[in-house]
Design a protein that fits this description.
elongated; two-stranded antiparallel sheet; 6 strands; mainly beta
Length: 80
């Protein structure tokens, strides 16, 4: 809980939630935890076959305790 320390991502579920049927997560391997104890994850470059449009998104982290936190929100524009 110390904000100066990295968040431990061991045993968490990380999801990019769009409010549509489309999304990415650690559960399906489209988000990777690079360094769990260092708090580092990445969304690797990948081919997205979603329809063109602007998607609102949030990065939701669900901890083993059931606690859910959203630290990042934004928009994602897919051109074609």
């Amino acid at each position: 809980n110390d904000p100066t320390l990295p968040m431990d991502l061991s045993s968490v579920l990380i999801e990019l939630v769009t409010g549509t049927p489309y999304g990415l997560s650690t559960a399906n391997g489209s988000i990777e935890i690079v360094d769990a104890t260092g708090g580092i994850f990445k969304i690797p470059e990948q081919i997205i076959s979603w329809p063109a449009g602007t998607y609102n998104f949030k990065i939701k982290i669900t901890f083993l305790s059931g606690r859910v936190r959203t630290y990042v929100i934004g928009t994602w524009k897919i051109l074609k």
